[in-house]
Amino acid sequence: MSDNSLGEADFYDPSDYIGIGRRLLVYLIDSFVMIVVGVPLWILVTTLWKFDLLQMDDPNIPFWTIYLISIWVYLVPIKRSRFGTLGFWLLGINIVSAQGGPPSLLVMTGRMLMWILGPFNFFLDLFWLGLDSERQTLRDCFMGTYLIKRDAKAIGRAPVHLTRYNAMGFALTYPRVCRPNAAGK
């Protein structure tokens, strides 16, 4: 009897998962977009501040408030939409939850915060991505998200079990789809 206490999740053909090269391009493109948004925003806020239209002592507070909200909008609701960020759109990438469909706003916010606040860093994420059979970063593993080709279709559903890893000083446990083996067991 199989344990399905964590439910079932979709899995895809291994060639449908996005690897290191395309992820790095997405990081570069989306970072450029965020800079392109930030620079004119800073110019606008400092211009308003200079002419005393903001009536504040420091332009940093309105700038960072608006800029952080715009980053959240870009990396959460837009990234999970069917269009995706500019990087996702140009490279034909989609982000999906393990259950299929777009991840929730809460999951995407958690994924973004794990990128910013840790506990994993950029290099550890890329290292893990190179070793993972489904090309997930650690934050994707914990948040139950996959980066796949835009036209990818799930090839099946399988039970989710907890996977345990002990490496590099980490004792990691996260949910993972247990694909059926080649013999169909």
From TrEMBL:
This is RDD domain-containing protein. Signal peptide: none annotated. Its main location: membrane. It is a multi-pass membrane protein. One of its GO terms (cellular component) is plasma membrane. Residues 19-144 form the RDD domain. It is found in: Cell membrane. The chain crosses the membrane at residues 24-49, 61-76, 83-100, 112-131. Pfam families: RDD. InterPro entries: Pra-immunoreactive, RDD. Keywords: Cell membrane, Membrane, Transmembrane, Transmembrane helix.
